[in-house]
Amino acid sequence: MAGIGGAGMTALAVFLRQRGDYVCGFDDFLKREAEFFLNCWDVEVIDRPCELPQCDVFVHTAALAKKDPLLQKALASGLATFSRGHYLAHVLEDEKLLAVVGSHGKTTTTALIIDQLERMNFRCNYLLGGRFEGLRAPACYQHAPWTIAEIDESEESFERFSPQITLVLNLSMDHDSYYGNLQKLRETFGRLLSRTKQRVLMARDEESLSAFMRLSNVSTFSRNISTESNDAKYLGANALNRDNIAASLAAVGALCELSTENDPSLPKIFYETVQKFRVPTILRRQNCLYDDGIVQVWVDYAHHPREVSAFLENYGQEDSIVVFQPHRYSRTTSHLDEFMEVLRNVPHLILLPTYGAFEPFDEQGTAEHLAERLAKVGKNTRCVEEKSIGHHLDMLLEGGSFRRVLFVGAGDIFSSAVDYGNSLRARRFLRLCRCLCPSLHIRENASLKSFTTMRVGGNARFFAEPRSVEELQRLLRCAVEANLRHFVIGAGSNVLVDDEGFFGLVIHLRSQPWESIALHGNTICVGAGVSLRTLAHFCRDRGIVGYSFCDGIPGTVGGAIAGNAGATNHCIGDFVCHVSYVDKNGALVRHQMLKFSYRQSSLPRGSVLVCATLHKSEQYHCPALISMEMSNMSLERKKKQPRKASAGSIFRNPPAGISSGKLIDGAGLKGVRVGGACISPVHGNFVVNEGSASCSDVLRLIFLMRRTVKSHFAIDMRTEVCFLANFWEGSF
Prior knowledge:
This protein is of the alpha/beta class. It is 33% helix and 20% strand. The radius of gyration is 29 Å and the shape is globular. A hairpin with a 2-residue loop joins β25 (566-567) and β26 (570-571). The strands form ten sheets. Strands 7-6-8-5-9-10-11 form a seven-stranded mixed β-sheet, sandwiched between helices. The protein has a six-stranded mixed β-sheet with strand order 12-13-17-14-15-16, with helices on both faces. The two termini are 24 Å apart. It has 21 helices and 36 strands. The longest helix is centred in the middle third of the chain and has 24 residues, at 413-436. α8 packs antiparallel against α9.
């Protein structure tokens, strides 16, 4: 797949992979975040090849240039070649399709439909044109009778779909360079509706759709949702448009009605779950990126005047600064008057350069031309380059009269919004630290390479080593007040840090009181920063049995307990009486019991373990015998584990009982290299740094290992190593 990083291409790739196809692809403009998630969803991301790879089908984004050398080679070779839309139509040709169409709001409405159906346990396939929060995939194929997908009218492939149900949200003139006029767009929609096999759904008060009301298969629904009872919570955290909610409920209701032959209980389930309606988080759709109670930063993906208007109606107030980035020269030119009407009443407007999206430059569609036209009707605005937007916003906010910054548009404005929200968050965190932790040294942009055993990765935006429990509490309160993510690093033996670093606070516990260890009757009181090797030697010297296995685990007690680390059929959780920790809000919680399972504990997410009380066996062994036991274990490790820099075991052992190392060995992967990283020839579950590895090298090997094992043995493997990045934190 060429151009695999786009939202539509990503969803199609995941859908095909879940259907059982092998899928790989490249993208000349692929972002690191997109690459990571595609690999997590079992789609292989490759570098752009010089020659056409061996494949059955070549699918490309509509944005790929017609003269692209690989596309030309695919066409010349006779290989089956499709644009994304054409291949989607081909794939869904025999599916019962609920198609979501319209000029605006398709992704939001489709996400609402998917979420509602999943909560009803209604099995469906789906493709979303955006991304849910977290690892939730944008597409799903599970051999279900119905498929939910948004269909884009901007491509000629729109004419190739014949849905069972078509949900029409609205109809506004857009994609002018393709359609030319509104009548042609209406005719295209009309043909789709005439091809719809069972039912067309549309809002009865949507004026732009009135021409289609006479069709025999049309059912209408009201967009007016009551503000009483439970309806108010429909707006959720994202304050989504009531039109989206009404449309999604109509679609799900129709789907339940048409599916009653298979499950007559569906209508009842539908009406029960409507009372618990929720709004899933969809990235780039009305997201609040920063809120300190004084200033808010919001962003929305909107590029048509109607979309911009809807967003500003929700959020645009007298105390708002609007940062708008026009999307495409052709759209800006065609809808210039409409954009002026929407933007002329904005209290303070800043324009970023038009995002051309591969269109040829057109002066009439530039932000500067829009600013000139606005000036003629008395609206003064400013055109600003992206690199200096933060400086201009800072000067405006210093006056204190503005409370909201609204970033709206498409293209790369989302990155500008995230960067500005982060800059406010960083400054707030430092101000709070100066007030609450004046004596604590906060390092900025600190390299994390030397704090991990893998010796790869970028910088932490902030790095701190608190010297007491009270200082740790205050530090965490500063982080939570600034809404800044935090991560605790011990010996760094199971941590892989992204090359681009981590925008957050990294906490390192060392010295007193974190490295204290003492006997108290029949228990051992140990600080979170004590190394497991130190714990093992402390117990050996006192004849305490059971802790020899800790000698070979290169970690600290805090990290070991949080992840229930283990070796030689022993786990640290088996020895824990209770723990004390500081929770994510800075409160000290004492003497708590934890539950343990394989490589997991019930320590609350975001908490920082302070100390633990461990069982002391009543059995006594001669220290010399324990030392001999540890030496034997050490010799076995040296035979079986590599000595080069690594992050320890990459994968957890699967429930089947076979070790991950044997699976990787059985797949023939030992010794495989990517860049400066190598799958250890000594132990297949280790990736070692040969001296010049990057995090990207290591990740590529990890995903290769996972894909290959799944291909050979049909076993899904989950990482034991924790990945720390701006877009992800934890195992995957």
